[in-house]
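User: Here's a structure from my thesis project, written as structure tokens. My advisor, Dr. K., wants to see whether a designed sequence matches the one we expressed. Can you design one independently, without my sequence as a hint?
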């Protein structure tokens, strides 16, 4: 157990020694490698609070970056709780009171939010309009595709060199279809957006293919090939040796197969020595020998042997042939497939295509930026790129700008959560705002994360940034401190021991990103109560269930095999059948834990202690304590949930995402397509078959319409039949259908898409219709989500039904899924099904990891064009005449790298899944029991796990290929196998195998209960319930009706804003206190203002003049003379070092500023420069009735936050003075009247600062710069 200090009066004493060190260490950068369940969020929050409470660091001197907005909110609450805890000890601490009130305005946010605030603050230097809209991810993607479509149209029509190169690329790599090119350009564009220096990466991609560049692939071809072959030979030799030993242990009668492998190993060693001792060019000779290699023919098996001995010979031969297959596939036919000349020719062949692709994406980026500028908008990626450009000089991320230096002076400490999930661009931004890039450098960057839980490679996260930083700190203590948090405060010690055993055999720095050594091994940090009269989850900690796969050979014939749906294949049917068997097994285990066992006792779990600091109590297991984790949800979660429901187990599928392809989605979209263009036959037929317009035409109806006139397109045949069709009933129904269609078409042309869509859906009672279908609630959620997509589209800059349909088409084409509301909460007593990614950061008492035989998704490695961080743009060579692609050296290298990186991430995903459990872990998958037994019998028993070789790791096809060899290597005291003696008291793993004979006997409940159908019909008809139907207690129905129809008691509070600016509050209060006060209409310009980032001339806008003057007064050096000449010089220098834009300098009211500094107040400000604070952002609170006289809060939490910015604060020992600058262009005599307009604002400022600083505000001054007049305001 971790060492903790027994005296908990000091909060830090509740932490472990390593946690305390992470919280309190100062004077250098820190990287905290926090294992699963190690309390990294607590450490980060405690460090922030320690810096504020003990080191007296102001909260506005902290920059805290989190991965999500929710994490930022949680971090803010945790810091607030710690500060309040300290204030309870010393309520009179004015500094902590001030920090508590400033906390809401502290820089605790995601990296995107920080970048946005940075750009808004320095918008002239960033070249961005501060009011520019930030496009949502969906609108940005739609705009990208529209811009790219337009670009491609021009290229098809163009006659310049780029257009010709583009068409040649489409012909040679797309087979005349540009679909592949669209996805490639968009993917490459998105990838470049994650780089700190994309131009450098593109230049590297070109240099890789330059035959004259010594650092290119052509210049390094011989050394690269030699190293590749040596690495492959070494890995294959190790694996072949393991397999030879396996044959000798398991099947000694077939030892000649092992002798055959020994000969092969000798040959591998000879080739390796030749490459090692000779020049690099020797690889070609070795490669030729490898291609021509002939295996020694294995001896035939003896004739007169038993069936068991025959099986041994066959099994040994299979092992030998597996080695041979790997050698031929991975080495002979891949690494050694081409000569040096062929490799060089391939690189030269793809060179012009790579250049074309780079030119296309560069031109596309320019067009996309122009499209956003025309809309005065930026996307999320722009926030990061513009911020990085703002922070560095000439785009060099290693040269901080003056803005970066100011950020370094502002932030004493930079703290980053989830550092393992950042990309290179984000890392550059954080490094630039930290003092690590200052001159001289100073370590103030505190980062926390766990590379073993880096699972967001698809979001372009780069775990090597964490790994490289850890290595640097480990090798050079002066560079920074590396602290490991190993103590796990989540899981049972037995479970931790099992997880350590597994990953000790799987994870390493080369595969997974981290050596699983003593620093990475988890240590139990939580105690669990012993079992007292009820079963608990102790040992075994992990149960592994292996079901024999369902194959065409062993699958029994089913009566309905001939009636499969058209889009179902026998393979799909077998997969579904196998998944249902897994689900049934899971259901049986859940029922067993819930009390359906010989002892009829429900399992118990550790609950929260009854007394703080005491041992945890036991409580019965509930369904909500169980979670089923899947690698992916589509086509997996629903079949599992369906079987569990049939078994009487309540279950909820956490729909973090869901596919767009559903019946209700297609019904609505088909109708929208017809409303957009009625000359679309297939959507029209779909709309007629669907219920949305009330037609519900049958297949026979459609056939009759079609046969009435086969010469016309279907849409014309429909209208013709509605006029002159022979069947009167059908004709009248068509007339009603077409009338509704025309009416809704007119409606959708005049109304927003979302409004018209929901009107159609509600008018047809479609929600009630889909609710009556299987999984009706989920289908209703689909309709609501489709409407939400339409509402979201309503905020896009350009509207229209056709553009909305394009938006939906792009979502489908990009295989994106929509976010679904959960529909359940953690408090509902339901078994939950979710993805492993969704579970990250969560914990559950019992975790079931299902579908472990799912193959890894490695499709990226098989693409003809790869985008790789290490090797650049890697393409296969295309032969247009033969219409084939063949590998190139760069494509092979990139594919191998992507393959390794993809599998390494899959291993980290597995680590995340296995570390979610608190008490028990169940693993389920399909695996040949005989193969598992072979692995078990072939292991040399020892205390530690079998460490998989690189080849074993890289040739795995699913997680079981990793898990079973490691678990099978465990000693008998740790692993219990079927048929073995009673498990030892130390057992960690319990393996269960289920062959087809056993699983065929399982009886999964039928999908529908026919007896229930009649009861449902009676309910629908509102007939009396049968006598044996269970009834609710008396009064329960009335309570339910009252609950549904009741009025929310605080309904008026739901209409109030959560936050409001002081300026808005001023107008509100004036209207409240003076009923005759009429809000003055704000004049709107005749034409919209030209965005600042495209303006060429200074604006005469009063707001721009005020912004520039306030910015100047914030930056002016008060220690200088501050006369007119000096202010002009300071303004010039601010422009030169980038703190003021060129246009801003011309708008600063320099003469007025010089006048102010000559006044008595101005002189006092200059003399007290050390105690002057400028541009103070604050957030305070008011009661609901202060905003709306009819509103009343229900408790102390019902408040409205007000936010504002104070220009200048003059601090005295026991008092404060506020100075607010006004740039209004008014005459001197009008100042008193205008000052009264600001009375509410100034009083709010004074009240907020008095609460924050715990000091009286003695004076408030309004400085009218244009009128040259200072007015002291009344404070009450």
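Assistant: Designed independently from the structure alone:
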């Amino acid at each position: 157990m971790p060492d903790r200090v027994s005296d908990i009066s000091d909060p830090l004493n509740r932490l472990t020694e390593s946690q305390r060190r992470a919280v309190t260490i100062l004077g250098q950068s820190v990287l905290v490698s926090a294992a699963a369940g190690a309390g990294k969020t607590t450490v980060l929050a405690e460090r922030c609070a320690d810096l504020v409470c003990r080191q007296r660091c102001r909260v506005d001197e902290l920059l805290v970056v989190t991965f999500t907005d929710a994490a930022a909110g949680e971090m803010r609450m945790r810091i607030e709780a710690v500060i309040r805890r300290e204030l309870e000890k010393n309520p009179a601490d004015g500094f902590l009171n001030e920090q508590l009130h400033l906390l809401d305005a502290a820089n605790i946010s995601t990296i995107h939010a920080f970048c946005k605030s940075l750009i808004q603050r320095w918008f002239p230097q960033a070249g961005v309009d501060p009011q520019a809209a930030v496009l949502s991810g969906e609108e940005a993607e739609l705009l990208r595709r529209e811009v790219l479509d337009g670009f491609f149209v021009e290229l098809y029509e163009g006659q310049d060199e780029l257009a010709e190169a583009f068409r040649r690329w489409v012909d040679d790599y797309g087979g005349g279809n540009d679909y592949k090119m669209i996805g490639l350009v968009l993917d490459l564009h998105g990838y470049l957006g994650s780089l700190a220096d994309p131009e450098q990466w593109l230049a590297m991609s070109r240099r890789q293919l330059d035959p004259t560049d010594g650092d290119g692939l052509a210049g390094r071809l011989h050394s690269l090939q030699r190293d590749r072959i040596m690495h492959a030979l070494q890995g294959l030799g190790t694996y072949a040796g393991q397999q030879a030993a396996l044959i000798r242990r398991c099947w000694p009668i077939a030892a000649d197969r092992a002798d055959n492998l020994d000969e092969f190993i000798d040959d591998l060693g000879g080739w390796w020595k030749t490459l090692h001792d000779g020049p690099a060019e020797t690889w070609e000779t070795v490669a030729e020998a490898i291609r021509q290699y002939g295996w020694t023919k294995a001896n035939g098996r003896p004739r007169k042997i038993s069936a068991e001995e025959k099986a041994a010979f066959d099994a040994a031969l299979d092992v030998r042939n597996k080695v041979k297959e790997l050698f031929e596939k991975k080495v002979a036919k891949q690494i050694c497939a081409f000569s040096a000349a062929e490799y060089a020719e391939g690189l030269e062949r793809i060179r012009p295509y790579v250049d074309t692709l780079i030119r296309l994406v560069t031109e596309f980026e320019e067009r996309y930026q122009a499209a956003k500028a025309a809309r005065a908008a930026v996307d999320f990626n722009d926030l990061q790129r513009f911020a990085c450009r703002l922070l560095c000089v000439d785009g060099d991320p290693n040269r901080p700008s003056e803005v970066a230096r100011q950020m370094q002076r502002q932030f004493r400490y930079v703290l980053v959560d989830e550092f393992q999930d950042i990309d290179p661009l984000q890392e550059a931004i954080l490094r630039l705002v930290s003092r690590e890039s200052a001159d001289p450098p100073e370590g103030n960057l505190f980062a926390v994360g766990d590379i073993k839980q880096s699972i967001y490679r698809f979001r372009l996260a780069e775990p090597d940034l964490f790994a490289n930083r850890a290595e640097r700190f480990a090798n050079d203590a002066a560079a920074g401190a590396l602290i490991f948090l190993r103590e796990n405060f989540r899981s049972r010690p037995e479970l931790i021991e099992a997880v350590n055993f597994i990953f000790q055999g799987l994870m390493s720095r080369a595969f997974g990103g981290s050596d699983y050594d003593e620093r990475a091994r988890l240590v139990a940090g939580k105690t669990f109560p012993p079992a007292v009269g009820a079963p608990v989850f102790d040992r075994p900690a992990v149960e592994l269930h292996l079901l024999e796969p369902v194959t065409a050979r062993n699958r029994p014939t089913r009566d309905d095999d001939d009636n499969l749906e058209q889009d179902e294949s026998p393979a799909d049917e077998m997969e579904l059948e196998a998944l249902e068997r897994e689900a049934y097994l899971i259901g049986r285990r859940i029922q067993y834990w819930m009390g359906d066992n010989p002892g009829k006792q429900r399992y118990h779990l550790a609950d929260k202690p009854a007394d703080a600091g005491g041992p945890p109590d036991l409580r019965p297991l509930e369904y909500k304590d169980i979670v089923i984790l899947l690698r992916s949800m589509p086509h997996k979660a629903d079949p599992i949930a369906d079987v569990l429901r049939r078994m009487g187990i309540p279950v909820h599928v956490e729909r973090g995402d869901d596919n767009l392809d559903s019946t209700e989605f297609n019904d609505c979209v088909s109708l929208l397509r017809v409303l957009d263009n009625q000359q679309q036959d297939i959507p029209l037929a779909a709309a007629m078959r669907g219920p949305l317009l009330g037609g519900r035409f049958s297949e026979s109806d459609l056939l009759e319409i079609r046969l009435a006139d086969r010469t016309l397109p279907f849409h014309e045949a429909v209208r013709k039949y509605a006029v002159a069709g022979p069947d009167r009933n059908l004709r009248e129904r068509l007339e009603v259908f077409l009338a509704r269609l025309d009416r809704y078409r007119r409606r959708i042309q005049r109304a927003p898409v979302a409004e018209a869509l929901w009107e159609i859906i509600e008018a047809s009672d479609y929600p009630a219709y889909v609710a009556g279908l299987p999984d009706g609630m989920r289908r209703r959620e689909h309709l609501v989500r489709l409407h939400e997509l339409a509402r979201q589209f309503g905020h896009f800059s350009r509207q229209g039904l056709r553009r909305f349909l394009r938006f939906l088409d792009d979502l489908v084409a990009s295989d994106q899924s929509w976010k679904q509301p959960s529909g359940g909460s953690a408090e509902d007593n339901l078994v939950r099904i979710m993805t492993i990614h969704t579970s990250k950061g969560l914990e559950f008492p019992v975790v079931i990891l299902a579908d472990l035989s799912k193959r890894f998704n490695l499709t990226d490695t098989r693409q003809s064009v790869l985008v790789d961080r290490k090797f650049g743009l890697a393409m296969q060579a295309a032969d247009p005449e033969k219409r084939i692609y063949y590998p190139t050296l760069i494509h092979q290298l990139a594919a191998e790298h992507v393959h390794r990186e993809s599998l390494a991430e899959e291993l980290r995903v597995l680590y995340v899944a296995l570390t979610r459990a608190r008490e028990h872990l169940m693993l389920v998958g399909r695996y040949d029991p005989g193969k598992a037994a072979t692995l078990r019998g072939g292991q040399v028993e020892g205390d530690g796990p079998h460490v998989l070789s690189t080849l074993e790791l890289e040739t795995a096809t699913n997680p079981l290929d990793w898990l079973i060899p490691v678990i099978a290597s465990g000693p008998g005291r740790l692993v219990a196998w079927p048929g073995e003696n009673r498990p030892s008291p130390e057992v960690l793993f319990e393996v269960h195998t289920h062959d087809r004979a056993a699983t065929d006997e399982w009886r999964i409940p039928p999908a529908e209960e026919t007896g229930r159908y009649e009861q449902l019909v009676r309910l629908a008809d509102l007939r009396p319930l049968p006598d044996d139907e269970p009834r609710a207690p008396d009064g329960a129905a009335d309570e339910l009706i009252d609950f549904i129809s009741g009025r929310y008691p605080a309904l008026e509070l739901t209409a109030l804003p959560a936050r409001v600016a002081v300026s808005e509050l001023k107008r509100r209060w004036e209207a409240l206190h003076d009923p005759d006060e009429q809000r003055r209409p704000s004049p709107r310009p005749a034409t919209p203002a030209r965005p600042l980032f495209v303006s060429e001339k200074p604006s005469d806008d009063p707001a721009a003049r005020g912004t520039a003057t306030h910015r100047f007064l914030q930056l002016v050096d008060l220690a200088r003379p501050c006369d007119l000449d000096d202010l002009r010089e300071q303004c010039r220098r601010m422009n030169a070092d980038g703190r003021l834009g060129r246009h801003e300098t011309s708008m600063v009211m320099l003469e007025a500023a010089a006048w102010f500094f000559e006044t008595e107040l101005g002189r006092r400000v200059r003399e007290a420069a050390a105690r002057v604070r400028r541009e103070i952002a604050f957030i305070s609170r008011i009661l609901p009735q202060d905003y709306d006289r009819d509103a009343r809060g229900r408790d102390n939490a019902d408040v409205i936050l007000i936010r504002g910015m104070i220009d200048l604060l003059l601090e005295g020992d026991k008092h404060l003075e506020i100075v607010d600058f006004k740039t209004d262009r008014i005459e001197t005599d009008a100042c008193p009247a205008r000052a009264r307009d600001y009375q509410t604002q100034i009083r709010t400022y004074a009240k907020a600062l008095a609460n924050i600083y715990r000091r009286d505000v003695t004076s408030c001054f309004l400085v009218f710069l244009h009128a040259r007049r200072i007015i002291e305001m009344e404070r009450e």
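When you compare it with your expressed construct, this may help: The CA atoms of residues 579 and 636 lie 7 Å apart.
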